[in-house]
Design goal:
Elements lengths: L4 H14 L5 H8 L5 E5 L5 E4 L6 E2 L6 E5 H4 L4
Antiparallel strand pairs: 1-2, 1-4, 3-4
Length: about 80
Amino acid sequence: MALSALERQSLLHQAANDFGFETMEEMFAAACCDSIVPAICYRCGYTTEMEPDQTRGWCEECEKNSVVSVLILGGLI
């Protein structure tokens, strides 16, 4: 997964919006203390919930292993 900083930022904003957070910081704060966190497909933008350390989760939309946790995408873990 080679994404530019702009692509990562865009995906993180989309995930925050899809999960009802005002900011990415709110999303990260909620996610850092949970066993299931927001995750997003870096191919199609599908959002779901996965384990905090997920890097290759299954996307139900594009049917690829391309879902990544926001904590990984944001560089927090």
